[in-house]
Amino acid sequence: MFETNFLYKTKKGKAVVGDSLELMKSMPDNSVNLVMTSPPFALSRPKEYGNKDQADYIEWILEFTKEVQRIITEDGSFVIDLGGAYQKGSPIRSLYNYRLLISMCDEQGWKLAEEFFWYNPAKLPSPIEWVNKRKIRAKDSVNTVWWLSKSDFPKADIKNVLTEYSDRMKKLIEDSAKYYTPKKRPSGHDISDSFGNDNGGAIPSNLLQIPNTESNSKYLKYCKDIGIKGHPARFPSKLPEFFIKFLTDEGDLVLDIFAGSNTTGWIAQQLNRKWLSFELDHQYLSASVLRFLDKEPFEDVRPKYEMLQFDKNAEIDAEGFLKQSVLFEPEAINISRNARPKRRANV
Ligand SMILES: C[S@@+](CC[C@H](N)C(=O)[O-])C[C@H]1O[C@@H](n2cnc3c(N)ncnc32)[C@H](O)[C@@H]1O
Description:
The chain contains twelve helices and eleven strands.
């Protein structure tokens, strides 16, 4: 798949510039284990990366979700992160994320495996008019993250994402006799002394508290060095990390259809999964290669980035590129000679 039209590739994955709806159409049925993504949200005021008008949003995105349903495996999952929004000009919430969920389940037959909520305590207050100026709404710091599947039993193992025990639980495990007496709860629910067993960690809840504060990341550092802006709506890497570990095994294929700065591909690579990342904006995807660099001196990074970004006629083949440099080892990044996509039209 995507043998020639990738922008860059590593041993485990490929980043491809293009409209993901079209790119998905060229993929076989039942071939992806997890699609993890965050689409442009339906904002009342469109942002720089092509957010859709609220009125057309559901219709637009349902076309993508239909294709996702076709390409994921029977036990595959689709995880979609959607930020909340207000209706245009009014302090009334848009229901677009809930409408999308209901349409997907009712019209396309998706199963809601579980709803997750991503709480970002570092989120800045917005919208300014309702929260800061008039002070009539609370800060919106939770995104809805729908985990959907084709079947009732998508592949999942919560043991892969256990969280650290609380101090109280650690004490209980150390000496359960001292800290805990088994008894029946008022509900009649019997809590046995196995409650004090060490299972390697606590079962996480569906409220994921992940601050989006990766200001020191390598990607941002390189962006700054090169003089470009980082992607404005990046995932914190812990978000895709949680779902990739939870819902896939090593060697499985993870796809992000709105890849932006390719956080998903990068983290999938770290976790030994295969990955594919589709992004409409050539510049965002070019900059995402910076995530995959490691100890490169700045002088070497800029020409590589520019090669991806500007030099559309460059005769660079994977072999030549590798001969020139050992910078991308051990996960060598090859640049295809055919991967010189046109600049995107604004969505
Ligand atoms: C919310 S951002 C995703 C950010 C990403 N999660 C990250 O960590 O960087 C949504 C992205 O979808 C891209 N996009 C919009 N329409 C697209 C399409 N039809 N095909 C592929 N990408 C698209 C936008 O350019 C934008 O970068």
